[in-house]
Write a structure and sequence with these properties.
Layout lengths: L28 H8 L4 H24 L6 E2 L4 H6 L6 H5 L1 H10 L4 H24 L2 E2 L14 H6 L9 H19 L4 H20 L5 H21 L1
Parallel strand pairs: 1-2
């Protein structure tokens, strides 16, 4: 019998070479979000600007031309418990940063299309309700001359177009889409909690600034929640 050549005396057997590890570590969630901001940025910038401009033109036209007298929304004990809190104003106006952040973090045209259609659908439904079934917030017993920061808000945005609160609906739409991005990028508990805290803070600010009552908030949650979930599931 012949000995196996690989085991014969004096035969050199090279050690097995380890295969190179081709796996690459995934960038951190913050870096991924930064990269997402660069995708289609001209489209995002132009689309968000045109969308907001069109919304405000329609919003203020409906505010000044309702088809019937506005129904005054009832004030609940929860509204009285929350009360008026001037320091909530920055949270209230931060909505427009928040809603701009949601599309800015998306990285496909399909996602941008669906969030755009969701915003359009919500605007059409909300403004349609304001036009045919207008509502208003009861006047607050507050001397606004002592709160100069509210002067512009109270001059431009009257107490109409109350229920459902589109402020709340758009905040919830943004929160759901941002939460989806944070899951995709592997963000931890803290950024996810901050996202929802910002959203809830905007909810609170709509009542604390006297712009809405609790019933408006609940209706806004219903409108925004349904459209947000449907739009995300379509993607």
């Amino acid at each position: 019998m012949h000995a196996c050549p690989l085991r014969s005396a004096g035969t050199y057997s090279a050690p097995l070479m380890a295969l190179p590890d081709t796996r690459t570590s995934q960038p951190g969630w913050l870096r991924q979000c930064g990269t997402r901001l660069t995708f289609f940025w001209p489209l995002k910038m132009i689309g968000t600007t045109l969308g907001m401009t069109g919304f405000f033109l329609a919003y203020f036209w409906v505010l000044r031309h309702p088809l019937s007298s506005p129904v005054v929304m009832p004030v609940t004990s929860v509204d009285r418990w929350i009360g008026f809190c001037p320091v909530a104003l920055p949270l209230y106006v931060s909505l427009w940063v928040y809603v701009s952040l949601a599309p800015a973090l998306l990285n496909t045209r399909r996602e941008l299309f669906f969030i755009g259609m969701a915003a359009l659908a919500m605007s059409v439904i909300g403004l349609g309700i304001f036009l045919f079934r207008p509502t208003a917030v009861p006047p607050a017993a507050i001397d606004w001359t002592h709160h100069s920061a509210f002067a512009f808000l109270k001059t431009v945005d009257a107490s109409g177009n109350a229920c459902p609160s589109l402020h709340v609906a758009f905040a919830l739409l943004a929160a759901v889409w941002i939460a989806r991005v944070l899951r995709q990028t592997g963000a931890g508990l803290l950024p996810r909690a901050l996202n929802w805290s910002w959203c809830v803070g905007i909810f609170y600010s709509t009542v604390a600034t006297g712009q809405h009552v609790v019933f408006d908030v609940l209706a806004g949650v219903a409108l925004g929640g349904v459209i947000a979930v449907v739009s995300v599931r379509r993607v």
